[in-house]
Amino acid sequence: LQPGESYREAVVRGLKEELGISLQDASNSGAVLVGPIAQTHKRELHEGEFHDVELVQSFRLEGFHDASSLKFDDGEVIDVQWIDPGSLQSLIQECPQNYTAWLQAEAAYLNWKP
To answer: Quick one: pLDDT band at residue 25, thresholds 50, 70, 90?
Structure first.
């Protein structure tokens, strides 16, 4: 979050900066940001000397259909896939190394199960 920014504003900004998705773009007129889909909650990550603590709100992007328009920063994003939330836990169990610790924890918190 930037100073004075709401979680929703941060999500809109992050979609634009990290994936090239502008919710103000006419070509994305059917896209709707839904949420928060869970209460604000604390997320901690400990990896070696690294320790991060954040307050998290999760949102869901619905109605976005132009995957060819994605423009992601390869310094921030390695790969982009459309995955049904119900399939995510199975995929994480099969190849946990393919998903960040943050995504794994959030999927578990949101109870996204096959």
So the answer is: low
